[in-house]
Design a protein that fits this description.
binds guanosine-5',3'-tetraphosphate; 2 domains; 11 helices; 8-stranded mixed sheet; Conserved Hypothetical Protein Ylqf, Chain: A, domain 2; 10 strands; Rossmann fold; alpha/beta; 15% strand; GTP-binding; two-stranded antiparallel sheet; Ribosome biogenesis GTPase A
């Protein structure tokens, strides 16, 4: 499967990121906890330009906890602070705020010495499309906005959202781009739904997912689709069995593999198959 991902928007996104990064004290980089490597930008160290950075493992509610632990270590070994977040219910958001202050401590001290007592620290949220940036920002603003309400101010044409405790957030998140050269990255992002399904072959994608599940989460696959076993079966035969067991028949009395593929993908993406991570540290 050959996946091209937003190549046309890359240059503009890159330029905007670089401009915006100059204006902030801390970068909050969202990644998808189900694909902690594929959903980041491998050039982020360079892009961040030595600014303090927090990596937020978003959609933690959908990821495999054991694998998450390994990836936390992977990031921390590289000197990057990690916070686990569920932006849908807001879990972990307060930790992100606290971490941001911690990382900006020196700057706050410096400001104090210069008489700038309440100078807010400035943050921006960045991440690839669909990683949850808007959901995260809404929760952050909901939890941390000043009691007086939001008073967006205009600085150099940028909109800032005032949060309580002297913090401001750039109201437009930075769009990052994944590593295009690597096909596996494209496949992983397609599996989690970050690439529009219209441009993908959903059946092909479902077969890739079946292969991954049988090797990593076999019990879930067997239980959910009432399969007796998958030994000696090709993944297409497993998809056929899913269609059979779900009684997915189309005109002409044929198995509706397309429908089976859509159901499998939806159930995986919505966590109905349980918490699943598609990557493994070191692989
Ligand atoms: P973006 O700005 O980075 O493009 O992402 P956005 O916030 O639009 O979120 C993309 C999808 O991810 C949304 O689902 C959103 O609800 C979901 N999402 C964001 N954070 C989390 C999280 O921590 N956990 C889970 N489970 N989902 C999360 P959607 O299907 O596009 O819309 P809807 O389901 O909210 O209607």
């Amino acid at each position: 499967m050959n996946i091209q991902w937003y190549p046309g928007h890359m240059t503009k996104a890159k330029r905007m990121m670089q401009e915006n990064i100059k204006l902030v004290d801390v970068i909050i980089e969202l990644i998808d906890a189900r694909v902690p490597i594929s959903s980041r930008n491998p050039d982020m160290d360079k892009i961040a330009n030595n600014k303090p950075r927090i990596v937020v493992f978003n959609k933690i509610d959908l990821a495999d906890r054991n694998k998450t632990e390994e990836f936390i270590k992977w990031y921390e070994d590289r000197g990057i602070s990690v916070v686990l977040v569920n932006s849908k219910n807001g879990k972990g958001i307060n930790q992100v705020i606290n971490k941001a202050y911690e990382l900006c401590k020196e700057k706050i001290e410096r400001n104090k010495k210069r008489g700038l007592i309440n100078k807010p620290i400035r943050a921006m949220v960045a991440g690839i499309p669909n990683v949850g940036k808007s959901t995260f920002i809404n929760k952050l603003v909901g939890k941390a906005s000043a009691k007086t309400g939001n008073r967006p101010g205009v600085t150099k044409g940028k909109q800032w959202i005032k949060l309580k405790k002297d913090m401001e957030l750039l109201d437009t998140p930075g769009i990052l781009w994944p590593k295009f050269e690597d096909q596996q990255v494209g496949i992983n992002l397609a599996l989690i739904g970050s690439i529009k399904d219209e441009i993908l072959n959903i059946e092909e994608l479902a077969l890739i997912l079946i292969e991954y599940l049988r090797n990593n989460y076999l019990e879930r696959l067997l239980t959910r689709y009432k399969l007796s076993d998958t030994d000696n079966l090709e993944s297409i035969q497993i998809l056929e069995n899913i269609a059979k067991n779900r009684n997915l028949i189309k005109a002409g009395n044929e198995l509706d593999l397309n429908k089976a593929a859509i159901i499998l993908m939806d159930e995986f993406r919505n966590g109905i198959l349980g918490k699943i991570t598609l990557e493994t540290v070191g692989l």
